[in-house]
Amino acid sequence: MTELFTDDRPDAPAETYDKTTTLEDAIADYVTDGSSVAFGGMGGRDPEAAAREIVRQEKTGLTVLDDARTTLLDIMVGAGCVDEYVGSWVGTSLISQGHNIRNAVENGVPHHLEMRDVSNFGSSLMFLAGAMDVPFVPTRSMLGTDIPEHNDDLEVIEDPFGSGDPLALVPAARPDVAIIHVQRCDPLGNAQIRGNVVNDHLKARAAEKTIITCEELVTTDEIREAPELTRIPFYTVDAVAEVPFGSHPWHCYGRYYADLPFYREYGLRSQDREDFLEWLEEWICPHEEYIERIGEDRLATLERMEGEINTPAPEGDRTPPADAANAEETHE
Amino acid sequence: MTELFTDDRPDAPAETYDKTTTLEDAIADYVTDGSSVAFGGMGGRDPEAAAREIVRQEKTGLTVLDDARTTLLDIMVGAGCVDEYVGSWVGTSLISQGHNIRNAVENGVPHHLEMRDVSNFGSSLMFLAGAMDVPFVPTRSMLGTDIPEHNDDLEVIEDPFGSGDPLALVPAARPDVAIIHVQRCDPLGNAQIRGNVVNDHLKARAAEKTIITCEELVTTDEIREAPELTRIPFYTVDAVAEVPFGSHPWHCYGRYYADLPFYREYGLRSQDREDFLEWLEEWICPHEEYIERIGEDRLATLERMEGEINTPAPEGDRTPPADAANAEETHE
Amino acid sequence: MSEQPKPTTDAEPTADQSTDTADEPANPLDVDRPHETAADYTTTELLAVAAAHEIDDGETAFIGVGMSLMSGVLAKYTHAPNCQLVAESGYVGSVPPGVVQSISDSVLGVDALVATDQCEIFVDNQRGAFDVGIIGAGQIDSRGNTNSTAVIGDQTYDQPKVRLPGSGGSNDIMTSCDRTVVMMRQQRRAFTTDVDYVTAPGHLEHADRREELGFAGDGPCAVVTDMAVFGFDDDGEMVLESTHPGVSVADVREEVQWDLRVADEVETTAEPTRSEVAMLRTIDPADVVLRGTDYVYEVEFDEWTETVREHWDELRSIHDDSTRHDTQ
Amino acid sequence: MSEQPKPTTDAEPTADQSTDTADEPANPLDVDRPHETAADYTTTELLAVAAAHEIDDGETAFIGVGMSLMSGVLAKYTHAPNCQLVAESGYVGSVPPGVVQSISDSVLGVDALVATDQCEIFVDNQRGAFDVGIIGAGQIDSRGNTNSTAVIGDQTYDQPKVRLPGSGGSNDIMTSCDRTVVMMRQQRRAFTTDVDYVTAPGHLEHADRREELGFAGDGPCAVVTDMAVFGFDDDGEMVLESTHPGVSVADVREEVQWDLRVADEVETTAEPTRSEVAMLRTIDPADVVLRGTDYVYEVEFDEWTETVREHWDELRSIHDDSTRHDTQ
């Protein structure tokens, strides 16, 4: 994990208020070779487009400091971008294993991937500690198992309050960059999430820099209509890029369903190194081109599917009462 | 604070699914003499009706294990219900001090009130630790000050990870009862909060038993329409009572504005012991009677005021699209 | 405010209780002779049904992807209509209309009671808020300690023989859920005398160890495989309790490395009913979990999407029927 | 999906930037000769204005109730339209149309960008996310250490001479905000050589102490009273920087127990402008903060509510004007 203490704590909010940029520029500006990176989502709302852009820009030596990761990690590992992974789970889908990850860990192809395991709650807590800027947060998870045995960053202590209970101390994670994909964001960086949040609110806070990619860039006034949904506030955000279908082939709650056949094909083609390299050749391209190649009809179908199962109330439906008297209806 | 470890951890969800009850029964069943109690809100969405019911039922020997507390604590202290307060701030409003609290602490009237101070973040963290069932959570707050000097429950240690930094360990609070007032709740105990949450989601989790009072009892299907607002889930709730205007004279975001003249009058009359006892005589009564005495017109005016400044999107407005094709509009 | 607040006692909303009771399982798909043993079922289907039976009505069930989710959804649609599903990605109380592809599958958001973050779910889990968890594993030992991290063999953790996916939530679930069900394939190499790496804590070294460590949960209560169902005795040792139809105790012993404890009376695992099998096949229309992984490659995108949507419709209509009672 | 996703470069929404700049303060109430010194203003109003000037445009300002909130709102409606207010109860970025009665006043929810919980606000605060905090106190010493807990006198913490409200968020703000402004009444008994209880950490025993403790914030940067404005030198000692019109350095020394350090050139605090005073009186229509506490007792409920609503309307219309630019 990154160093526990840094003197370069998050700066004051950016001098400029408009943080919008392109995906290309955001990755170029904030992800450098050797960076530690955390990604949002978890097999749903993952910043897949951003990860593909990292591969396209041929970043190397990355540490992925994260929780459970699916296709985006497997692709980056296969493409040689990643040296180390700290997290809780790797795979590519329901059944398919992370073939590139296994190949890297077991066989050193394309090069060795160092693994440091935590549990899922351990992941949450390392970002919570990072967000709080404290060295650690204690938990009972992972006690009695081999997880702390093989992860030197975890400490087991006896409760200083004298209960006699052991506690596992999960050290703070402070990734250089967090990349989070959300449904809506304004140019200031107020990111709103519908549905589950996973660890995204903590990752954005724990990271030195945060990139938001969003399905839809909205006005600040639209954000004000549902302030409860702003799980990532402007002051923790450095760059905002509008990236429609930025989670494809995964789900984006309330927007589109996962493209199962697409990532099952990935699972198949990533079993063999040559096939995987062909897959890279085929699908690593600017996001606009990727989306065009997936095709309008297919994307529209995925939207329709999601619309059939999840139709959240519109965020912006703060219809003011025609007159104040309407407030009286509250209890009628 | 309560003992750090208990063997009686929260039980499995109640066998019965319908947790609705009356305010009278909820207080009678869960608040016993000598209980430790945490209240929700903070000069807004406070469970004022529940606190008045505690006074009406003449509970004694209570510990209020809490954060910043306003009128409800002052009333309970003046009425002799409370022996100890652990928290961050006491007063009754913007300007008025907590006259009963001062009288109890400084002069032992009606009897001595023991105070144990923490900072506001300290309050949040003691409930976070309680919710997590860990002995403590570390913070940098309160270091270098007299707060830990006069609160033996706080420990200051050196970072076990070797940074050399001191850390204040905030011990877990596990109150016997949390009483939280919310806008909407279903009979299962899924409590939805609009606007700010303060520490309510943590208090409900940290407490052994949780009573929800709500402005409006709604169906479980209505809860499903805005799952992001369910800050307190059914499995942490033991009793649900519908108590309209349960926060009067304070605010209830999106429902009614604070009754400033009412609590300013309280501030005035609580300066003198005799006047306060008359106030008690006048206003400690079943909530239905209290509401009737405040008067329909006045309450309607407070609703109208709030309606002019805060008109949140209706929680239940998850209008399904007429047909699935509507989902396509998302990106048009 | 034209009328007085309603007295709190005559509240209209009623709790989310299905009219179905646990005693008389539902037959939501209107299957003919629903309670009869299914004529054709796969071992995987038997496994899913056996695991579903571990969830009691009214419980909170912490479920994951794949088989674990299948069992949870099956329980909810059959004998445990009032159980509530918990997914670590942040959903509670949802009514998934089908199998999920991932832990954040938006199918898990369908009609959820709570949409929150992972930290909050695990905070609640650590406090002991959840009744039963269902996990998978790559290896297990006689005390229910599981390995989902790495089959190390004669190699190292850093470069193991087989790198497995990792803990995910399995460590946290096994630590803190009141009880945990482990679903596995019955294989001798997996039922091992010594797991290569303990990912999730079973009954550890001795029966009191979990309590010494301050765990909220009681640890593994059952292991359900494609051959048998196991429980644990007071020592924390695994005990064979039932074998599936056609499987002998000897068959099971063959696939276990240690000297297996066996219950005095080993029963035969209840076979899936017609209703249960029909429901499972509705939950997994693309046969993603139940019957291999090839179907989705054999069909075009369009056929996949149509199949999925048809089955969603079917399950959604069942849910609408069953919840109609609490919204009238 | 009838059209391609928009290229990310021609996004329509624009940032929440007022057209007013910090150089040319706004005059939202259309006051005549807005930048002239106000003819009549109270000392409390001068204090509020002086504190408001401590907030720069574009900053995040962690504010409380009463004077602190008044200053924050004033700054937002005048020289710092892009500052964002943070309230510990869980609101960020709101545009309160008036004075608040409490930290959860729903006026603080008006047009908020974020509605969250207190723990999350303080998590962000501890990480150093906020630029400037404004707090009050009962006592202060020469190093800016404040007491809001108890005036103990010759008694004890358990039974002090005067029990004050307690830390509230003041300890957390002073620990972690980049810089903190303290607002107080200038009284000899309050500006003391030795505070009875250190509630919030100023510059502590020596200049490096805060860094040794690992604090994210730089501590108190200014103390604003009804007589003067103080800064702090590199040693962490309070320095008199300006006195209010009509107040001499000697007058201030009279109200400070220790040997006060005084800047080489003590300035006269800028007087409030006509625009600023008009705005303050619009923010506090019931004179709750600015001019005593009696008004609200003298009027009936109906007059109070009408007054409040009138002024809300006025401030809301200003906000609507100023944000119209970003919603076109």
UniProtKB/TrEMBL annotation, chains A, B:
Entry keyword Transferase: yes
SUPFAM superfamilies: NagB/RpiA/CoA transferase-like (SSF100950)
InterPro entries listed in its UniProt record: CoA_trans_fam_I, NagB/RpiA_transferase-like
Region spans: Disordered: 306-332
One Gene Ontology term of the molecular function aspect: CoA-transferase activity
Keyword annotations: Transferase
Coiled coil ranges: none
Name recorded for this polypeptide: CoA transferase subunit A
Organism: Natrialba swarupiae
From TrEMBL, chains C, D:
Keywords (A to Z) from UniProt: Transferase
Stored Pfam families: CoA_trans
Superkingdom of the source species: Archaea
GO MF annotation terms: CoA-transferase activity
Region feature (Disordered): 1-34
Cited SMART domains: CoA_trans
UniProt protein name: Glutaconate CoA-transferase
